[in-house]
Design brief:
Elements lengths: L3 E7 L3 H12 L4 E5 L6 H6 L1 H19 L15 H25 L3 E4 L1 E6 L2 E5 L6 E10 L3 E3 L12 E2 L1 H4 L8 E5 L3 H12 L3 E5 L11 H13 L2 E4 L3 E8 L2 E7 L5 E6 L1 E4 L3 E3 L32 E3 L10 H15 L13 E3 L4 E6 L2 H7 L3 E7 L4 H6 L5 E7 L5 E8 L2 H13 L4 H5 L10 H10 L8
Parallel strand pairs: 1-2, 1-6, 2-3, 6-17, 8-15, 9-10, 9-15, 10-11
Antiparallel strand pairs: 4-5, 5-6, 7-16, 12-13, 13-14, 18-19, 19-22, 20-21, 21-22
Length: about 475
């Protein structure tokens, strides 16, 4: 007999597995379909988790090489054991994926490994790599199949010298010269990993700034930091092609004057974004519509044009963030169960895990200018923080944007140590529509990095910052 479910979730990334857990908590008989052998999707296997493991390892090496002596710690014969670094990363990934498998068992979610596809509106076919095809009968479906790296036309993506983040997280040597196409989150993070370990890093970016989706102040500050790591940047450059010359990658691009420029290195990282992944779903069998960019079209309830079929995460519009997908997974599960959830997309924070970290939430200054909204700015540098001087983390700043009349917080943008954790103070405050003065009047422990948020809010409130 073919099993019957209230809900089948296709894809076990952060959006999919969280949706499955929440649905099971709400009493829905739930199944999770995953094409690969391990759960967790891109994030856990070849994205968020392994990249952060390598970022932490490379930062330890960089600090030992450049900062330990100042701290009074003598180290000799320092070198990178890249294989051990990769092995530690694999162990972190394995334990995290095992944790998701445990959560499925704990919540009584049935897991099926194989390619999930629509046989009909209420039938999901699971085709495993070996063994018999299984047909699941279900009332509702959530498509959570995520995204894949975008490959530029004219680039011979061979997974050896021309690589994406997936291959970059499994290199067997430190590149001598890593050329990165794209100055966004992926490019700056992967570049940081190998730049800290001695690689020359060249970034070719189509726009005029780093991390262009975030507040421009952050991109400018991050550029200063990465230049100290040895990065070289080429902005307003459009890549036109690439080829392999023996073991060297050759990239051609047009600069802002229309002139052809050539770059040569031993590896090229393709970091120009990601595209929705819907291959193999057989959406045409049920008539689910895609937009012009290949994204699954959904309404305000994240339901497709076919009633009872929903989609979440990278496969639909919006920011491609694991935590955005998680919120959407919970949203859909609760909607199916008859609840009235909501997701505040404006207050989903964005983070770049370089060092220092970069984080932002709410409107950017560019947003406010384009919207014609009157605002005020408060800024505070990390170098004025006692805690930052104590830990030698003086690069960075906090930037606060508040409404010119009401003082309501409109955006908070941070580059600095522990920014990824600090941004949550801003998220909580903005969810409750706090003013800059509200935060300015709250006691912040001393010495801490979070004092910079208080001081930036003081600066936005009649320029009352104390320590600058």
């Amino acid at each position: 007999m073919n099993p019957k479910y209230d809900l089948v979730v296709i894809g076990s990334g952060p959006g999919g597995y969280v949706a499955a857990i929440r649905a099971a908590q709400l009493g829905l008989k739930t199944a999770l379909v995953e094409k690969y052998n391990t759960l967790g999707g891109t994030c856990l296997n070849v994205g968020c988790i392994p990249s952060k493991a390598l970022l932490d390892s490379s930062e330890h090496f960089y600090n030992a090489l450049h900062h330990f002596k100042t701290h009074g710690i003598e180290v000799t014969d320092l070198k990178v054991n890249l294989e051990q670094m990769m092995q530690r990363k694999r162990e972190v990934v394995s334990k995290t994926c095992q944790g998701v498998a445990f959560l499925m068992k704990k919540n009584k979610v049935d897991v099926y490994h194989g390619v999930g596809s629509f046989e009909s509106r209420h039938q999901i076919k699971v085709t495993p790599s070996s063994g018999e095809v299984i047909l699941l009968h279900t009332d509702k479906v959530i498509i959570a199949t995520g995204s894949k790296p975008t490959i530029l036309p004219g680039i011979p993506y061979d997974k050896k010298r021309f690589i994406t983040s997936t291959e970059a997280l499994e290199l067997k040597e430190i590149p001598q010269h890593l050329i990165i196409i794209g100055g966004g989150v992926i490019g700056t993070e992967i570049g940081s990993i190998y730049g800290r370990m001695g690689a020359k890093v060249t970034v070719i970016e189509y726009t005029d700034s780093l991390i262009p989706s975030m507040d421009r102040t952050l991109g400018k500050e991050l550029q200063k930091v990465l230049i100290k790591l040895g990065f070289t940047f080429y902005f307003n450059h459009q890549v036109t092609g690439g080829h392999l010359d023996n073991d060297q990658v050759v990239i051609t691009a047009q600069d802002e004057k229309g002139q052809t420029v050539t770059f040569q290195g031993d590896y090229c990282l393709l970091a120009t974004g990601r595209r929705p992944y819907t291959e193999g779903l057989q959406l045409q069998k049920v008539g689910v519509q895609l937009d012009s960019k290949g994204r699954v079209e959904v309404n305000q309830h994240l339901e497709t044009n076919v009633k009872g079929i929903y989609a979440i995460g990278d496969v639909i519009g919006g920011q491609m963030l694991a935590h955005k997908a998680e919120e959407e997974g919970i949203f859909v599960a609760e909607t199916i169960a008859g609840q009235k959830p909501h997701v505040n997309y404006l207050l989903i924070p964005g983070v770049v895990y370089t060092w220092p970290e970069v984080a932002g939430v709410g409107y950017t200054e560019e947003d406010l200018k384009n919207n014609g909204r009157k605002y005020k700015v408060g800024m505070f540098p990390y170098k004025a923080l006692g805690r930052a001087r104590a830990s030698m983390d003086t690069d960075g700043l906090v930037k606060v944007l508040a409404d010119a009349q009401t003082d309501e917080l409109l955006g908070v943008h941070i580059i600095g140590a522990r920014a990824a954790d600090m941004i949550m103070e801003a998220v909580v405050a903005m969810e409750y529509r706090a003013s800059a003065e509200d935060i300015a009047r709250m006691s912040h422990a001393h010495p801490t990095f979070s004092e910079a948020i208080k001081e930036a809010c003081l600066a936005a409130t009649e320029n009352r910052a104390i320590h600058v």
